[in-house]
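Input chain follows. Return structure tokens only.
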Amino acid sequence: MAILEAKGVTRVYETRGVETRALRGVDLAVEAGEFTALAGPSGSGKTTLLNVFGALDEPTEGSVFLDGEDLSSLSPAELAARRLHKLGFIFQAYNLIPVLSARENVEFVMELQGVAPAERRERALAVLAEVGLGELAEKRPTEMSGGQQQRVAVARAIVSRPKVVLADEPTANLDSKTASQLLDLMEQLNRDHGITFLFSTHDPLVIDKARRRVRLHDGRVVSDERA
């Protein structure tokens, strides 16, 4: 069974009476354990599709399934619970809380999940060590490089071992060497822990590393290739 699935998904935005079709009848199934890139130029619909999969946006038409569950059947509170417990997010802009240390940023998701303080700390320190930041656990984001901040974001996304990690242009603000190291790390996490990764990207580094490449153009899937 697919861990994520879009069936006939269309997303229409209206601005000042003008309609924009960001997605046009997309059918796509992502299997558990995949390392997949949604590729395409700006405006192709890849970020919109990622947001729909992440229950951050709703389709105008069609259905989206997470772990076999139709997201359209859920209340806002239930959708928030699914995001919290089944999904991890990595954003282009890192989205770390600046007044918190790396450890506290990673702990934040677990705090929302109701994990006890001692366990939160233990798990946060363990995952920061796993991403190579054990010595920087008490540093704040402003004391870190961009690559280090994005590693904290990866740690935060995986600390609860979600079903899927959705990564929106995760290498956009990184130099090529740092981006390559980050991708190697995420590939290792995918292989070691079976975490499904779905990227939205136009970065050739990400596209080359992906084992499945889904290309979008004008809101439609135009190719779907496996490495």
